[in-house]
Amino acid sequence: MSVPGELERARQLAFADDHAGAQSLLLSLMPQIVALDRDDLALEVFAQLGEVYLVRSAYDGVAECVRRIRDCVSVYVQIAADPSSKDAALVTLPPDVVDEMVIRYTRRADHLEIGLAAAAGDHEAAAAGLADLIAESDAGVAPSVVEEALELVMRARITCAVALADDDDHVGAEPLWDAVLTVLDEGEQSARSDHLWVLVGIGYGRFCVETGRLQEAEPHLRRAGARAERRGWELASARVLLERSAAAWSRSDAVETERLITLAYPVIARHAIAHDVSRCWLYFGLVRMAAGALEAADECWQHAQRHWEELGRPLHVHRILLQRSWIDIFRGRYTQARNTIAQARDMLDSSPRSTWLQYARLDDLLGSAWRAEALADMGFDGAGDPDEGWRELEERLAGARGIVDAAPGSDGYERAMPKFERAADLKVPAALAVDSVRYLLGDATARLRWATAVSAPVLAGAFAVAWEGGNVPLVAELIEYRCARGTFSAEPNPSMVVDWEVTATAPTPATVDVATPAFAAGAAAGASSALTRLGPLPALQMDPSGEAVLARYRELAQERYGRVITSGEPIWATWP
User: Could you count the other beta carbons within 10 Å of the beta carbon of residue 451?
Assistant: First the structure.
């Protein structure tokens, strides 16, 4: 077969995720290409190799391919600037081929650099590169170059959108997905178009699952799976199953989650895609934890943590550490649980992509650890014993009735009260901060998703710790806060509303993982009698002789997370 034919075969191998085969074939072509003295074919080899290395997370290889492409292209640019140079006489390719080659492979190198920046979490650099690629996409000396440029733009958008969502920035990813879906051609049936559609179906399907849009995710994932199966692309089919298992877990369908992840894992493991392997282990652990098999769950999460540490992904390591801390809590190893949560905080601190919401949920979990220890002091029948074996622990949890037996004034009761207070100082400000986002959501569906899946569990934990700690005034203030909810304003500020409507997400996949960017809330946009948008209430006062409701906790929420819980309007009295 000719070299161009072999290059096309290598492309088909890459579409089928046979990366080793594609790499071996491409490298084997280089001696023949050198003998033919065809720089255009050599550039195609480096461009395809760079794409293979990018998928395999071999970033040094990608950088080397980019360097070789740019070095070669720069020689031809210099020759074009000085046609009388001695190097110009060595050029054997026709001028129109040279012009097309320079444009095409400059863009291919740009595309690879966008992928490198996105993979490294440098989303600003990736966005700048994408903007340049879009600006240059209409320039070309041949229709094929223009068509390829448009495809490169689409693939770059997909790469950037997936990377943003991986760093919990679904707000930044949504316009990229909108742009991709606008120009996606569902009718074309070539291998190239099917591969592009599969990338979109998997990436956008995952985006929909992580943002709570399960009904929208399902058709994209199923169509991507159908195209992958028709082509015999087993890894793509397995990745579709992985995203469908995530959707099943979001629906609380543990049986379907396990069925799908069991089908997907062997293929994903065989292809050794480390990030997806880790996600498989995460879901295996969640299913086992739901079934009460705590030892098996912890083993699964150990595997996931190891892979994410090897990949250098601090946000994912932080999530799995939080998940593993629950095992320590169940085992009654509260100090160890808090140490694990502290490690997760270190991971957040080391990530430039951490957000206030991640810290709020981390504090909420730390409060849960203190609450669990306080309940254990009060004789909670489900509390674990650090010296128990796994089987004894699992049996204890299965048979627990959720009762405590420490009477007020007993030693256990006295030991528990300071721990409940410490838990409340962590959980209540976090709950207020997270729940305050509801006030900024103009869309009712988005508001319902946020309230149900994100703020309700955290707020319920705040109520629980106040009640269990016997803090009746705090319970009353939380009730007053919850009943008052918010006000309405006729002057919504789009900059305050639209971003949070994008991220009204269910926690995916665990209780500590939600997709949101950093965002500082403000007061309602303005006062009016028209009812068009929820907004924060002014501070409330229940007792004429007391301070405002939840005043200290609201101050902690602003201090820790930058969230303004109430508007700046005069205080409202809640008595007649």
Answer: 17
Structure letter (DSSP) for residue 440: G
The kind and range of the H/E element at 313 are none
Share of the chain above pLDDT 70, in %: 87
Contact status, residue 427 vs residue 368, Cβ threshold 8 Å: yes
Report which of 267, 309, 301, 306 is spatially closest to residue 284, judged by C-alpha positions.
301
What letter represents residue 268's amino acid? Answer: I
Averaged pLDDT score across all residues of the chain: 86
Which of 73, 16, 25 lies closest to 49 in space, CA to CA? 25
Q: What are the C-alpha distances in Å from 490 to residues 442, 448, 522, 535?
A: 11, 21, 16, 10
Reported confidence tier of residue 141, pLDDT bands at 50, 70, 90:
low
Q: What is the CA radius of gyration of the chain?
A: 28
3-state helix, strand, coil in the chain (%, to 5): 70, 0, 25
Q: Does residue 204 or residue 436 have the better pLDDT? A: 204
Query: Is the model's pLDDT at 84 over the cut of 80?
Result: no
What local confidence, expressed as pLDDT, does residue 140 receive? Answer: 59
Q: What is the pLDDT of residues 324-368, one digit of tens each?
A: 999 999 999 999 999 999 999 999 999 888 889 899 999 999 999
Which residues pair with residue 540 across a beta bridge? Answer: 572
Q: b/e map of 317-343 (b: 16 or more CB within 10 Å)?
A: bbbbbbbbbbbbbbbbbbebbbebbee
Contacts of 53 (CB under 8 A, 6+ apart): 59, 61, 62, 65
Short-list 337, 306, 344, 561, CA closest to 434: 561
Query: What's the pLDDT score for residue 384?
Result: 84
**The predicted structure's pLDDT at residue 206:** 95
Closest C-alpha to 329, from 423, 197, 470: 423
Is a pLDDT exceeding 50 seen at residue 52? yes
413 band by pLDDT with thresholds 50, 70 and 90 = very high
Q: 180 in helix, strand or coil?
A: helix
Contact present, 138 and 113 (Cβ < 8 Å): no
Q: How many residues does the chain have?
A: 576
The C-alpha atoms of residue 260 and residue 245 are separated, in whole angstroms, by 5
Are the C-beta atoms of residues 3 and 29 closer than 8 Å to each other? yes
In three-state form (DSSP H/G/I as H, E/B as E, the rest C), the secondary structure along 455-516 is: HHHHHHHHHHHHHHCCCHHHHHHHHHHHHHCCEEECCCCHHHHHHHHHCCCCCCCCCCCCCC
This prediction has a pTM of 0.86
